[in-house]
Amino acid sequence: MSAGQLTGKKLQNGGNRMNQTEMKNYEPEVMVDTEGLSREDWLAYRRLGIGGSDVAAIMGISPFATIRDLYNDKVGILPLIEEEESNWVAKEVGNRLEDLVAEIFSRKTGLRVFPVRKMFRHPLYPFMLADVDFFIVFPDGTFGILECKTCNYNARGKWEDDSVPANYVLQVRHYLAVMNMDCAYIACLYGNNEDEFFIRRIERDRMEEEDIIEQESYFWKEYVEKRIEPPYSGKPDLILASIRRYGGYADKSLPEIEVSGMETKSLEQYLSLAEEKAQLEKRRKEIDAKQRELSVPFVEKMGAGCKAVFLDGDSRYRITYNPTRRTQIGKDQMEKLKIQHPDIYEEYAKTTESRTFRIKKEAA
Which residues lie within the region annotated Disordered (predicted)? Predict the structure, then answer.
């Protein structure tokens, strides 16, 4: 692939079928120029296909979204409960530091990198989209992909021993398929200096790529195009949060429903685990009480102090008794605020909802 093709040549073969030779030598299509594109318009184009960051949700391993969330986004179903994005700062940091990550990568490797502000799509699978961070020019004149990431210091363990988070691997393999390239690098900055930096090379794997394309094709053709909801898959916490967002707030006035088509053994297992949890909780409370009892003479000696040391032969025990202070408005005071200053209450009060799932076994 030439630099000219990367920077703007629109191909003519579109979504037509290709023979085996063409399938190996294809070139990506330019879907839209993203330079100056508003975020709303960019998101609208993203909904016309599957992007690299969508793949993990289809595969059921995304740490952020379920396959149903992805489906709802593609077909334009909006959640009934709009919540503030909890990780917006991390996303914003990642976006703003992309150029810096690319510069560090270039200095460390000596490879030239450059952006192409275009959204590409696969000529054979036009629902496969790629909005690549940067491209790499290798010494032999070929091109590769650079994906730029950031993470906090505590998350660096996911990158150690040459590992890469699985969702990022899927993202890059998707890009390699769309762009018909053989190599990509993922660069991740996890600190505030160039030594706190990971570089990982991803070689194209045609067998894994075939599986990704097969799963994406099934999702797009069987679910999105037919407007059929996919079954939930992924982490239970993400699934429960998704059900809540799209199901809306709880309504206690709704009548009791009879649930059918489910397995009794799931309910029995839930009850068994609840009993096991109750026993563990009872033991935990017993341990807590014993620990408090053992701490009494030491706390009495320390008084208002927060630190102490106890020497016993070759052993030294450092003891801390630190305070945890929290300022909050009590329930009674909150009610007064609501009555006496309703404007202030409405401006700053925030109502959240959580629901508790319980099972009680009764005689039929």
Answer: 1-23
